[in-house]
């Protein structure tokens, strides 16, 4: 089965083939020029000298009028002017534009002539654009393969859907059928999609063909259906509920629901014997049903349960969804073809488990790896007794293992895989796509027969090889769907694949962009490739554009969400640019010439007159030699200068007034005590009153722009905007910090309360059972929607209420920080419960554990604890932070 991981990686390399071949064919592009470059160079040179010459002409006003008093000059001007107009008129005619520039009668004046020239320029430029597009392989006239009645889709040619060599001349590339205006099927899903950064929990709640019953976790509707995050309770309580539930069931939750059945499945004797291949019916003579109602689905299930084998395939869409959507299920029996609209019947598909998990029915797939995962993820469907023809093809050592190859090999059917990457969300499903989808399963049972025969023949009728295929297939059906989990390290994994070394700033940008993209993709339920394709993310990280416009320039075409959030992205890039570079990196950049030192006139803005430092003084100094140490106000701290040299190029230095000094690195923060942190936070909340006079670090002014007053004004206004954005961000951060502090106080109070509870628990031996009873009654009593205190009260036996009251005291004294302000040593806390290992003794209610749940929240969002981000982590933090969007999602 082909990997779907690189789906979006390469849709920018549109131009590869076409533009290059053009040149080679023609030999000489224009007479006298060996290639486009030579022609362009010449053309630009000509234009430049013409521009220069025209600028050198006597100016209208005094000079011109003076010269014009000489008849020779006048004559010369007129003849030259006429010649020019003639030339222009010819060019315009050549391009089919209005061309009466020279006809005095038809023109009222210079203005109209000017308009004519402008119009013609537009026409010519437009034409040049079209031709360039064509050369790039974007042919605007050619209609892509698309079912009748659909809008011409955007053509995206990407490397992974390109046909290999020898595929014939029919079509060099596949086209991704990307219909516009497809309504998002997610909108009508009965169950909201869970894009939260928490591990996937199986969807199954009824287990047909069970030899081992489904664990209570899945059958208890109360638990299943009332997700704590959907309850109308405060976040802390939702987390508590969630944690309690998951602790009890952690083993069940992540196990394969049919593990036991699959482990005990042995291949039936008859499945290892040589069959008589049963020829498929011609497709035209085969009954076909499109199933999009529950009634039909139930009937289909009945039918399937009576068979001994059927073939299955899925079609999937992954571009406009975070996790992906299964759009179709094709099923073929020996007699009939079915296509199920799985977008429509998504919540009902589970009923097919009756046939799918029946060990006496063989389910034939081709390349089932992804299908097995999609079935679990979207429908809670599992397969018991799978036969994968792809595995058979491998065992037989066939030339290729794709379905088209098997179709060709066994059925002499030429399949057209062009629709494989069509937008399978399209409804009603066009006939062409129905045909294509049917082909994927129609022949599969016959192929199943054939490969079985061959596998036995291959092995002198010994069942060993065939058995190995059954085993491999079983392994595939044991696969578990794993949700993509974002961790602090995820970006590194992707970055390593890029095979490009990035410096500290670039890597920071990559990390920040990666996090932004992941968050937005989950929130908007879009693929990360839709939000920001990796190659664009790379480009932005490498170039670190100084302006929002630069970010846009890194993206072609610009993804809609990038356009929408370009300011946020710009702030991220800015943040990355502020990272200190390692000395080696600075040196490397210098040798590469990547960091031209900014010129002072670019840098400076404000009331201080710095003009006495001339441009030439600075230009040729290396960063280390910049005159940073001038002036009493400037710091002499060497280390700090290393950091800042890059971006300040000389005149900006950290202020001596340390109150307004920027925070240092994160590492430094770690070693601070809580009290020191607090002090720092207060200090940080001060705004440097001189800030407005400091040169902004990010605004780049084009050298020529300084002559253009309007552009200067533009830059200035933009700079102020950026500064105000920065300031707003700072303020937001300060607010966030304040909030976090408040939370910490609350947490401490809870901690106290829990300590009290624990000591109470120790004094009561039977407390666990009482607690459990209480919890049990709480579960069945349907009182989940009660407020925090009510919930806690329920879980706690009566006598503790008194204790609780006393324990609440610290909460009341919150206002007096001296009392409650006790630095907490997090290194001592046991965070194992959030880590990968399943805790064995997790069935008991343990107030300390619950406590840890609260502790975890202590970590500010930005610096999530790594151990909590492990694959198996039940990161409530993420769940919680996602809750905000869950409630009002989807927004469209
Ligand atoms: P298939 O099993 O060939 O019908 O493919 C099932 C689904 O997998 C298709 O609907 C596509 O969404 C996806 N798919 C198949 N091949 C590729 C590929 N080469 N690249 C990306 N996605 C693919
Ligand atoms: Mn498939
Ligand atoms: Zn298919």
UniProtKB/TrEMBL annotation:
InterPro entries xrefs: 3'-5'_exonuclease_dom, Exosome-assoc_fac_Rrp6_N, HRDC-like_sf, HRDC_dom, HRDC_dom_sf, RNaseH-like_sf, RNaseH_sf, Rrp6-like
Region (Disordered): 1-27, 728-892
PROSITE patterns, per the entry: HRDC
CDD domains reported in the protein's UniProt record: Rrp6p_like_exo
Protein keywords: Cytoplasm, DNA damage, DNA repair, Exonuclease, Exosome, Hydrolase, Isopeptide bond, Magnesium, Metal-binding, Nuclease, Nucleus, Phosphoprotein, RNA-binding, rRNA processing, Ubl conjugation
Record's subcellular location: Cytoplasm; Nucleus, Nucleolus; Nucleus, Nucleoplasm
Molecular function in Gene Ontology: 3'-5'-RNA exonuclease activity; metal ion binding; nucleotide binding; single-stranded RNA binding
Alphabetized Pfam families for the sequence: DNA_pol_A_exo1 (PF01612), HRDC (PF00570), PMC2NT (PF08066)
A GO biological process held by the record: DNA repair
HRDC domain segment(s): 503-583
UniProt biased composition (Polar residues): 1-16, 757-775, 865-874
Basic and acidic residues bias (residue ranges): 728-755, 838-854
GO cellular component: cytoplasm; nuclear exosome (RNase complex); nucleolus; nucleoplasm
SMART domains: 35EXOc, HRDC
Cited PANTHER family: EXOSOME COMPONENT 10 (PTHR12124:SF47), POLYMYOSITIS/SCLERODERMA AUTOANTIGEN-RELATED (PTHR12124)
Family recorded in the similarity comment: Belongs to the exosome component 10/RRP6 family.
Subunit: Component of the RNA exosome complex. The catalytically inactive RNA exosome core complex (Exo-9) associates with the catalytic subunit EXOSC10/RRP6 (via its N-terminus). Exo-9 may associate with DIS3 to form the nucleolar exosome complex, or DIS3L to form the cytoplasmic exosome complex. The RNA exosome complex interacts with cofactors C1D/RRP47, MPHOSPH6/MPP6 and MTREX/MTR4. Interacts with MTREX; the interaction with MTREX mediates the association of MTREX with nuclear RNA exosomes.
Protein name: Exosome complex component 10
The species this protein was found in: Amphiprion ocellaris (Clown anemonefish)
Lineage summary: Eukaryota, Metazoa, Chordata, Craniata, Vertebrata
């Amino acid at each position: 089965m082909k990997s779907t991981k690189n789906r979006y990686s390469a849709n920018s390399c549109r131009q590869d083939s076409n533009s290059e071949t053009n040149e080679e064919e023609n030999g000489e592009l224009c007479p006298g020029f060996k290639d486009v470059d030579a022609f362009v160079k010449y053309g630009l040179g000509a234009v430049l000298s013409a521009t220069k010459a025209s600028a050198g002409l006597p100016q209208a006003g005094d000079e011109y009028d003076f010269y014009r008093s000489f008849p020779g000059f006048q004559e010369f001007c007129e003849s030259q002017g006429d010649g020019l107009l003639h030339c222009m008129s010819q060019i315009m005619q050549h391009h089919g534009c209005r061309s009466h520039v020279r006809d005095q009668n038809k023109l009222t004046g210079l203005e109209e002539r000017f308009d004519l020239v402008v119009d013609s320029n537009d026409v010519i430029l437009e034409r040049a654009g079209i031709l360039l597009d064509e050369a790039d392989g974007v042919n605007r006239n050619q209609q892509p393969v698309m079912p009748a009645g659909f809008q011409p889709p955007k053509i995206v040619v990407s490397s992974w859907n390109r046909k290999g060599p020898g595929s014939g001349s029919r079509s060099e590339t596949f086209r991704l059928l990307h219909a516009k205006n497809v309504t998002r099927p997610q909108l009508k899903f009965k169950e909201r999609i869970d894009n939260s950064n928490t591990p996937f929990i199986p969807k199954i709640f009824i287990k047909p063909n069970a030899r081992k019953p489904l664990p209570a976790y899945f059958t208890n509707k109360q638990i299943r259906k009332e997700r704590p995050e959907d309850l109308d309770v405060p976040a802390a309580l939702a987390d508590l509920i969630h944690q309690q539930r998951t602790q009890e069931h952690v083993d069940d939750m992540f196990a394969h629901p049919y593990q036991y059945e699959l482990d005990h499945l042995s291949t039936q004797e008859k499945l290892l014997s040589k069959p008589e291949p049963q020829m498929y019916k011609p497709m035209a003579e085969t009954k076909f049903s499109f199933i999009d109602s529950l009634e039909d689905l139930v009937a289909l299930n009945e039918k399937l349960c009576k068979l001994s084998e059927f073939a299955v395939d899925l079609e999937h869409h992954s571009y406009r969804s975070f996790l992906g959507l299964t759009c179709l299920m094709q099923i073929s029996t020996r007699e009939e073809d079915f296509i199920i609209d799985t977008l429509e019947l998504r919540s009902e598909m589970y009923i097919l488990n009756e046939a799918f998990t029946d060990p006496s029915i063989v389910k034939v797939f081709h390349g089932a790896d992804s299908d097995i995962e999609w079935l679990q993820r979207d429908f809670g469907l599992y397969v018991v007794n799978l036969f994968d023809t792809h595995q058979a093809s491998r065992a037989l050592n066939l030339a290729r293992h794709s379905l088209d190859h098997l179709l060709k090999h066994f059925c002499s059917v030429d399949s057209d895989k062009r629709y494989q990457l069509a937008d399978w969300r399209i409804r009603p499903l066009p006939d062409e796509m129905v045909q294509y989808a049917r082909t994927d399963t129609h022949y599969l049972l016959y192929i199943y027969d054939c490969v079985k025969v061959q596998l036995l023949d291959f092995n002198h009728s010994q069942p060993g090889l065939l058995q190995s295929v059954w085993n491999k297939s079983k392994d595939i059906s044991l696969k578990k769907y794993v949700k993509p989990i974002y961790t602090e390290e995820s970006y590194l994994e992707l970055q390593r694949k890029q095979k490009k070394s990035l410096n500290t700033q670039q890597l920071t940008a990559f990390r920040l962009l990666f996090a932004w993209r992941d968050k937005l993709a989950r929130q908007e339920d879009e693929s990360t490739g839709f939000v920001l394709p990796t190659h664009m993310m790379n480009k932005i990280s490498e170039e670190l554009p100084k302006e929002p416009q630069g970010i846009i320039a890194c993206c072609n075409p610009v993804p809609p969400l990038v356009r929408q959030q370009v300011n946020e992205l710009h702030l991220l890039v800015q943040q990355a640019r502020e990272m200190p570079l390692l000395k080696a990196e600075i040196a490397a950049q210098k040798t590469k010439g990547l960091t031209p030192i900014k010129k002072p006139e670019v840098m400076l803005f404000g009331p201080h007159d710095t003009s006495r430092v001339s441009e030439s003084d600075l230009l040729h100094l290396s960063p280390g030699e910049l005159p940073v140490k001038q002036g009493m106000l400037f710091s002499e701290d060497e280390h700090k200068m290393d950091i800042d040299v890059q971006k300040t190029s000389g005149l900006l230095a950290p202020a001596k007034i340390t109150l307004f000094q920027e925070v240092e690195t994160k590492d430094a923060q770690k070693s601070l005590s809580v009290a020191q942190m607090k002090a720092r936070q207060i200090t940080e909340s001060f705004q440097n009153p001189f800030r407005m006079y400091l040169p902004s670090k990010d605004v780049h002014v084009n050298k020529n722009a300084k002559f253009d007053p309007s552009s200067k004004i533009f830059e200035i206004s933009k700079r102020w905007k950026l500064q105000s954005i920065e300031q707003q961000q700072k303020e937001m951060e300060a607010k966030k910090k304040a909030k976090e502090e408040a939370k910490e106080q609350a947490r401490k109070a809870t901690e106290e309360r829990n300590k009290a509870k624990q000591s109470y628990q120790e004094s009561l031996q039977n407390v666990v059972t009482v607690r459990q009873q209480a919890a049990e009654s709480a579960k069945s009593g349907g009182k989940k929607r009660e407020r925090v205190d009510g919930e806690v009260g329920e879980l706690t036996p009566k006598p503790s209420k008194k204790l609780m009251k006393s324990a609440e005291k610290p909460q009341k004294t919150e206002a007096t920080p001296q009392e409650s302000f006790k630095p907490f040593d997090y290194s001592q806390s046991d965070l194992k419960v959030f880590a990968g290992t399943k805790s064995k003794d997790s069935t008991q209610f343990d107030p300390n554990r619950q406590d840890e749940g609260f502790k975890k929240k202590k970590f500010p969002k930005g610096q999530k604890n790594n151990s909590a981000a492990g694959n198996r982590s039940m990161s409530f933090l993420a769940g919680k932070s996602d809750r905000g969007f869950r409630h009002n999602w989807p927004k469209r």
